[in-house]
Design a protein that fits this description.
Blueprint lengths: L6 E6 L14 E6 L6 E8 L4 H10 L6 E7 L6 E5 L2 E5 L2 E11 L3 H12 L7 E8 L16
Antiparallel strand pairs: 1-2, 3-7, 3-8, 4-7, 5-6
Length: 150
Amino acid sequence: MVTPRKKVLVTFTGPSQPPTDASHLGLAVDTFLPEFPAMKKIEAVIKPHKIEDVRSALASLGIMGLTAWEVRGFGRQKGHQELYRGSEYQVNFMPKVRLEIVVTDDQVADVIKAITESAQTGTIGDGKIFVVPIEQAVRIRTGEQNEEAL
């Protein structure tokens, strides 16, 4: 949903007597509130072996770009024990992949559904999805802005 640009007229006036110094001069200011494009950033934290499934699901929706990082974290999964050279040790931070995808508002529901369906294993630690508003996007090469830059 695009928030329409609103015009706000703010008027400051001095006393009814003629002004005697600059502090009592009247001032009229036209102020435009910024127009926010309808874009969202979807951040998803998923299991590393599901990244290709998620990428394929997003490509089938026409999403051609995403950013991915290898990250470590914990939540309800709380890590696990591993055996290395005969010794057990606790792994508290689990390997994950963090994805960032910027889309228009009308694509958000489809992207969330695609990520959820393709990343879900049904076990603890499948991940999380966060949706954050984006004020502006600019394609550096062409200078295209907002939806055109996606």
